[in-house]
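Re: the request from the purification team.
They wanted to know what the chain is likely to look like in 3D before they choose a buffer screen. I agreed to run a prediction and write the result into the notebook, where they can find it.
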Amino acid sequence: MQRLQDFGSLLTGVKRRRGPCRDGAAIIDERFAKTLLILDGDGCFYILVATEYSHFRLIRCDHGDVMKAKGELVKAAKKLMWERGYEAVSPRDLLEESGAGQGSLYHHFKGKMDLASVALGEVSDEMCELARETVGTDGSALDRVFRYLDVSRDGLKGCRMGRFAAESSIAEASLRKPVERYFRELQGLLAGALREAQAEGEIAKRLDANELALMIMAVVQGGFAVSRVYRDRNAINRATETAKSLLKSLRHR
């Protein structure tokens, strides 16, 4: 947060340099030609926002508003990146979706990538929790794997995590790590259930449980890709149903 020691002099400077205005904004010295979040001596927050033609606007807000803006930005990033991916979402899109001011974006985050990293971290946490709940611990080991495959998916929406794998931005560690964390967690859950299924005689022991789990994940992610190419939202569900049939056939080999 940018802290100005003499907030009163700033306000005085705005009044002293007041000139032609647009919508109540005042022209002030060019040294303030950027967006600042300011804390005065009474603990009040102000956002100094640059507008066109070197006009500036002072907006007063309380601490709750500032923190709410951060949450709204993260929420907007989670929504828009699922719909469009990382690269197709601009900072302006995030500001418009969240309703937050530019001062909030650059106060809480270094930029778009920093915000995206935080948002993907939250999505990763949510997806890991959902995977743990879906696979669970009750029922036979193979039934737990089937529960994951039985999840009804809209192939046109894509996977909240997997859709980023096709973007060049996945090379950035801050964006890749939360995605990788989810997939490794999921693979571990499925592999654990598959090893139990092998111990119970439900699946042939000659097969590597980790590789089987990888295959199941690839069916789901590939199903999303084919659904989007075919414009067929149910293609993924047919693919996962076939994967179930293949797993069932392994009982007899």
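For the purification team: The two ends are 64 Å apart (CA to CA).
Please add any questions underneath this entry.
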